Fold this protein.
Amino acid sequence: MKRYALIIGALLVTTLTSAQNPNALPESDYPYWPSYNHLEVSDLDTIEAQKWIDTDHIIDGWDWSLPDFVTPSPRSLVGLQRNIGVNMEFAPLDLKFKANRIGILWVKWRDIEPVEGTYNFTPIIERITQANDVGSDITLRILTCSRSRGTGSDAINNGEAPLWLESYGVDLLPQENPNRNSNFNPAHPEFHKRYLKLINALKESGIPSLIKAAYVGYASDSFGDEGIGPYGERNSAANDTVKHVRERLDAWSDAFTGMEHKVFMGGASAYGFQKGFGVRRGFVEMYLYNVPNDDMGQYIDENGYLYVDEKAPIIKYQCFNGEVNEEYEDAWATAERGFRFGNTTNSYPYRYFASTLRALQMRCTYIHTTGHLVPKMLPFLCQELGRTVDDAPDVWTFLNTSYIRASYYQNNDTKERIITSAEQTQGIEMKNFERWLYQRDAAGYETEPAVKIQHAIKMWMAQPDKYYDYIARSGKKIGFDLDDRWAGANHTLAVKVTYFDNYSGTLDLTYNTAVVQTSKTQNLIGDGKLKTVTFFISGLKPNSMDHGFDFVLEAGAHTDKIVVSMVRVVNGEKTTAVKVTRCRSNRTTRFLTQVLSDKGKNFPLLHMQIPNFKNWFRGAHS
């Protein structure tokens, strides 16, 4: 009888769960990542970077190591602590890895200007100073729009805008959900006039010079000012036509004169990009979103490869390019939060893994991250943020495959990509998260998706009958091409191949030097485990193999096929370091402030246009 009761109980739970979250999918296994273990800020001192080994070797699992001499890009920021209000101190962090960490400080306009015309920035300045004293810079977000939040007795107290705005007849925006924000209308002339005064007071306070970055948003039904105008976060063209939106951005530009690169927006705006502002999106946990996205240069090419157009303003001008990757608390797997990412936390480490790689594929310079569900990835993330092809310590490709719903793609496409009839019915096969290392199929180098990972929820951008990813590609030969601009290719390279040992035989790395074709071999035993082998090579002759590939991974003579998940190519030598200032969008000149080589050379201060930068860089180092 007890057994039947358990079965009935389980059925009831399943029925209730399905009713509460119709987007939930049957649970799957996620065996290639750690089990769910949410790490708090206080746990950060337990995380260390993965050990770098400077000889050929093999390990079980993923390899996120980088040489010890690699330091974070000066353009990178990683948010590890967020304080809402000025009352809580920022904690000192005893990090065991290198990072340009930052504290995130949210404050209310209501607290800054409780009485109209009387501004009190002193508590903010004191909190910034306290954070600096414990080794953390600050990014500031002033919440300005909400009159109230929720429906309870504390709804008014939870608001952020000063209530004296009501005396000027400022209207409220339509409320989408009574449990969320009720916002004043930023377009109302009286609101707008006083908002501009607030930003001018921020300028006069001196805070812009004290902080690392500052957020400018608009209004949002959810917690915090979001977007950049009334037309939605992705509708840059429409928002740029709105007078009061432009005037808001003008005020921020004036407040941060000479420091425009510090300002980042809650949505894309060409008008803001022209001022040198960046953008911070959110929701990268939905790691298939923003495909396509014109402002970010994200497209799928005609062969299905996810492509980064580096002429997109946010990349071309090296603007602040941010994401949020934080919603991994176990509360999200409860009815109270709507089972947002599934019925359990089982899939969270995989989602953290995929979204971290996606943020880097999107060329992010900043990320607010919590949970740290794959701890070895956090030090890797901190070293990867803010890189360009000119200073990247490694290049890589994750050989994943997902299926994007054609209608979703078309609704966001500005390039008029041709959608085939097969893609209309079966989804667009989107291949590879890549950072300056490209895998391409060609005659004799055909591959197939391999190792299916089930989604935990029905993401709205995914093809409805294909709620899964593949995390590897299989074939007899797999060809790779290094970005020709990457100077690291001239040096000793560590080629790190993460593969599934599914077939017995060998996995061979083949490449050309100036003298001879060379191969390195790893034995396969067919035990099905995920492993990473590292091959050190030197003297690589670029683009010298079939189809212009730089190197090839091959199944050995008596091997059915190889199954490869990720390839990283790491510059294994301490070479020239180049520091480049952030560029404003109306300034194409780069400032080369210092060049130091491992040979101890010093080069003079240079101020130049650098259309042929790579060739100069190589010549200077030699």
